[in-house]
Amino acid sequence: MFEFKLMAECSQTGARAGEFTTPHGVIKTPVFMPVGTLASVKAMSSRELEEIETQIILGNTYHLYLRPGMKVMAEAGGLHSFMNWNKPILTDSGGFQVFSLAKLGKVTDEGVGCRSHIDGSPHMMSPEWAMEVQQTLGSDIAMCFDQCISHTAGREKAINALERTTLWAHRSKNAHNRPDQALFGIVQGSIFNDLRVRSALELMELDFPGYGIGGLSVGESHEDMYRVLDVLNPVMPKHKPRYLMGVGYPPNIVEGIARGIDMFDCVLPTRNGRNGTLFTSSGRMNIKSQRYEHDFSPVDPECDCYLCRNFTRAYLRHLYKCGEILSSRLCTQHNLRFTVHLAERAREAILAGKYREFISRFSETFKDSNEAFKDGPADEQ
């Protein structure tokens, strides 16, 4: 039911093009996966996601467990039918919420005792809980329960989190019994090379059908991220998909693919889109800037999304400054199309044996500037 085929590899980098077969379709990798935390990719309908050629989306175990709850989800027949999405879905395990909602919970080897961020009600998150919820959701890919920590936590805490992640991976696998759902392990180890290798080797003994790399994109430098990926690339199984969790900044995607990553997800395109920051072929654009008030050119002449084919920068800036909902919808759709298409173009370059040239062209054209984020929110989830 689940099979990963390598279609091409770049001899000059670690880039790979593959196909991962799931019950709801074949995923062509590399791939970017939009995040639908609450059974909805914010501001986007299922039809619009299909129009921008989305192959797979994410759901959030913790948030869906709280709302609408598993009784409603079971009655609906699972997440696919609930949100009318007939392509693959990946669900996280709630492990990231152990990190992001740390103030609301207490972590032990047994699990995470926490209080709902909605109403303060008590809950116990554990590997068994994560498997039960994800199996009820019926996603094509489920993730093991893991412990993510800050890159500043230090080596001792990184070791403790690694050991707990391995313990929870064993328990997740033992509790998981849905044959039409692939369970991925998650490599932890913070920014320490030897701990990352240790985590990968321990998880490989459990022979998961795929592996996530967690605990990155949590504040560490791009250089640290790339170093960890360089260390893991020759260690991780060649014929199984690799998923870099929580990474969606375009240069990180391009560099991640060069280091053997097949799958990416992040809220960055949708969150930044709603706040007026767009990804374009020439870099980030802050549509709030006054320079676009009389600019009647497309946001990105090289983009084929609905926004870029039909509206101007001046019109989009007007919508944003007026607080029109259409601004959020158009910016979100554009950013997602740009990011999904970036992975598509990377795949085409790998299949053509020209990924190194692809990296060079991207680096030359995608000019970054911190100005784009002056008025916007932080990038964290």
Task: Please characterize this protein's 3D structure.
This protein has 381 residues and is of the alpha/beta class. The protein folds into 2 domains: 3-266, Queuine tRNA-ribosyltransferase-like (TIM Barrel, Alpha-Beta Barrel), CATH 3.20.20.105; 273-373, no CATH class. It is 40% helix and 18% strand. The protein contains 15 helices and 16 strands. The chain has helices at 46-51, 61-66, 70-76, 79-83, 95-100, 127-137, 155-175, 193-204, 222-232, 250-257, 268-274, 306-310, 313-321, 325-351, 355-365; strands at 3-9, 16-22, 25-29, 31-34, 57-59, 89-91, 105-107, 112-115, 122-125, 141-143, 182-187, 211-213, 242-244, 263-266, 277-280, 283-286. It has an 8-stranded parallel sheet with strand order 4-14-13-12-11-10-6-5. α11 packs antiparallel against α14 and α14 (325-351) runs antiparallel to α15 (355-365). The longest helix is centred in the C-terminal third of the chain and has 27 residues, at 325-351. The radius of gyration is 20 Å and the shape is globular.
